[in-house]
Amino acid sequence: MNPVIQCPACHASLMEGVFNQPDFAPCPACRAPLQVLVFPAMFRKIAAGQNAETILVEGESSCFYHPQKKAVRPCDGCGRFLCALCDCLLDTRHFCPACLEAGLTRGKIQALDNQRTRYDSIALALAIYPILMFFLTIVTAPVTLYVAIRYWNAPQSIVRRSRVRFVLAIVIALAQIAGWTALIISMTGHNA
Amino acid sequence: MPDIKYQRLTGTHTRQAFSVALASRTSLWLGPDHLLCVEYNGFSETYKRFYFRDIQAVTIRETPWRTIWNGILIIPLGLCWAALMTSSDRGTAFAWGLCVAVVGIPFLLNNLWGTACACRLRTAVQVEDLPLRRVRKARRVLQRIRPLIAAAQDGEIPAEMVTTWLREAAATESVAPAPAPAAVPAPPVVEGSPVPPRLAP
After folding, report:
1. Which of B148, B166, B168, B173 to mutate to test the interface with A (most CBs of A within 10 A)?
2. Coil, strand, or helix at residue B160?
3. Contact A76, A93 (CB under 8 A)
4. Closest chain B residue to A108 measured between Cα atoms?
5. Where are the domains of chain B?
6. CB-CB under 8 Å, B29 with A159
7. I need a labelling partner for A119 at 20 to 30 A (CA). Which of A83, A100, B135, B160 fits?
8. What is the pLDDT of residues B88-122, one digit of tens each?
């Protein structure tokens, strides 16, 4: 991406007068009030990727994935030796591509997590929405209980970590099951 | 790896000003070295991380949404108010009073929250809208993250330097020669291939 900042309103390239000002300043083209904060990363050159060095001296440690390439560090996940090409830096830790892949699929590395299913919200929705058509609760109440218990230990939201929704869903589902049980007992008792 | 603790920076907002209630909602969180934008669609959350070291620019633009909402709310509010003033019995007055409250509270909040804005964040590879809708809130958030970004990028740039550097970058872009088109290798001729060999130009 070129180091050009455009006005969000008129898309004209901004050149002066609006950057790092304490208050709003008008866009020179459309006069829309703007405040633009520019940081040094805007002008930072993107570093070229590292090349893996070929092993020249016999007996040198080699990369686990590229036996002809020189190892530069071990993986922080599995300890395998890595060449500069296989060395993936994440925050301050170095991983091999396999550990990164495993971390992504198993949700072991939180910094790689880009999606999580909110089973607590699903359980609560299953408990609450069918109340609008109460006869559905005879099916949804056990399903709610199953979801709440089955996914009790599943990874939660990375920002909100509470099981209140699970608890609420379980309470509502139990109340629904109790209601249905009472209704069925009263009906069978009445018939008898 | 230990779990990262996040602090909430904004409440949840829909992406668009007139989105329906079921649309996905976004919120902004502060991590130790990044901002986290959480998009929640009711049953799953999607996360976008903006590391302080990668943030190139943040743009706040004033928008007319406060005035638009005022324009939308003022007419029913006026009508309900007039009906409340002219109602004779207590039951009708209570009903109109309820209507005034239903319309009046959003009207009041819209004005208390202050001027509306749209906030954008730019990195080397993306431009993202942030869930910051009011100038006061956006400034409060920026006040909080600006020192963190500056610390991650070894300082800030003075205003006049930004202009100079942008001009230099623009000049370099215009002077730089266009990259030569890569030579297209002739396709290999395979014995018995049904495609006839092409003549090199």
Report:
1. B166
2. helix
3. yes
4. B1
5. 7-63+116-155, 65-113
6. yes
7. A100
8. 888 888 999 999 999 999 999 999 999 999 999 99
CB pair distance less than 8 Å for A37 and B167: no
Q: Closest-CA residue in chain A for B120? A: A8
State yes or no: pLDDT of A172 exceeds 90: yes
pLDDT in tens, chain B (201 residues): 557 889 999 888 776 655 555 668 899 999 988 999 999 888 889 999 999 999 999 999 999 999 999 999 999 999 999 998 988 888 888 999 999 999 999 999 999 999 999 999 999 888 999 999 999 999 999 999 999 999 999 888 887 788 888 778 777 766 655 555 555 455 554 455 455 555 544
Of B48, B163, B173, the CB nearest to A16: B163
- B171 contacts chain A (CB < 8 A): no
pLDDT tens string B51-65: 999 999 999 999 999
Q: How far apart are CA A66 and CA A51, in angstroms?
A: 12
How many degrees, rounded to 5, is the angle at CA B8 between CA B21 and CA B2? 120
Say how far apart CA A15 and CA B144 lie, in whole Å.
Answer: 26
Query: Could you tell me if the ipTM is greater than 0.85?
Result: no
Name the residue of chain A whose CA is nearest to B154's CA.
A40
Q: Would you tell me which CATH number, out of the four given (3.20.20.70, 2.30.29.30, 2.40.50.100, 3.40.50.300), belongs to the domain B7-63+116-155?
A: 2.30.29.30
pTM over 0.95: no
Token couple for A190: 């009445």
- Say which residue the tokens 């993306």 belong to: B126
Q: HSE-up of B141 (CA within 13 Å, CB side)?
A: 27
